[in-house]
Specification:
alpha/beta; three-stranded parallel sheet; 5 strands; about 35% helix; globular
């Protein structure tokens, strides 16, 4: 769901590079002709509802944060697994509802938090497990990015669930 930059620049290439196939895309506002050609996408939908009602196994959601809960629940209702951009939800009650729905339907919901699976993390873990780094007493890390347009970027708009703590 959506042709957001994170989908186009990161997730779609990763899916294909790892042997997956993008079967369908739904976008309300963006031209997806180039994506359809690049990834040989078979089905293009003009509504999110049409995509989730189709014959897919899983759906990736790259909508604004404020829409995650609504669409995760709708996708689960249609019996599909879900990969959703971070943050998965905006409060704990939404997460509890998703957990209950996914368990009841025997479906998997996962937040697209790639750092858990990044090769650098795997390499560091192997080094720690092998004792190559000595005894680990503490660890500190930081993630950041440059935000070029503070006035237009949806990642900081509170009405869309944006802000430094959510994104």
């Amino acid at each position: 769901l959506s042709a957001a930059n994170i989908a186009k620049q990161q997730v779609m290439p990763a899916i294909v590079e790892n042997g997956g196939k993008i079967q369908a895309i739904a976008s309300r506002s963006q031209n997806v002709k180039d994506l359809v050609k690049q990834y040989e996408i078979e089905h293009v939908y003009t509504t999110y509802e049409a995509l989730i009602a189709s014959d897919l196994d899983a759906v990736y959601i790259a909508l604004p944060n404020s829409l995650h809960f609504e669409w995760v629940m709708k996708v689960l209702e249609h019996g599909k697994h879900v990969l959703v951009e971070k943050p998965i939800v905006l409060d704990v009650q939404q997460m509890i509802a998703i957990k209950e729905k996914a368990e009841a339907k025997h479906l998997t919901v996962m937040e697209a938090f790639m750092y858990r699976f990044h090769p650098q993390i795997e390499a560091a873990k192997k080094m720690i497990d092998a004792g190559e780094m000595g005894e680990i007493i503490s660890m500190r890390s930081q993630f950041h990015f440059v935000l070029d347009d503070w006035e237009k970027d949806i990642r900081i708009r509170p009405d869309l669930g944006g802000g430094v703590l959510y994104d």
